[in-house]
Amino acid sequence: MERKLPDFSSANFLKQHILDTVNFYAPRCIDKVFGGYINCFLDDGTICDYETKQLVGQARFVFIFSVASLLKPDQAGNWRSTAFHSCRVTNAITSMAGIIGN
Questions:
Q1: Smallest Cα–Cα separation from 62: which of 37, 32, 35, 42?
Q2: pTM for the complete prediction?
Q3: pLDDT higher than 90, residue 11
Q4: Is the peptide bond before 73 cis (omega within 30 degrees of 0)?
Q5: Rounded distance between C-alpha atoms, residue 4 and residue 2, angstroms
């Protein structure tokens, strides 16, 4: 049986995909112990690694939560605060590492 691929050119599909993605990860991805976001999940949503973080993964969460705030204005405050959660942590890490100037 041939599997039908999603229509990645469809604006409706892309919007729904972003919202499905944020609803899968939030709020369990918010790392209240170490800061930033938890990056390692199994397909069923089980967290498999609480400690490993990478900058690209953190940035991806900021992006999808920011876009979700634009797509769902009625939930924008929630998604914005979730996005800013990592911005604060990422700024602190990059400043300590000397990646971004003061």
A1: 37
A2: 0.76
A3: yes
A4: no
A5: 6
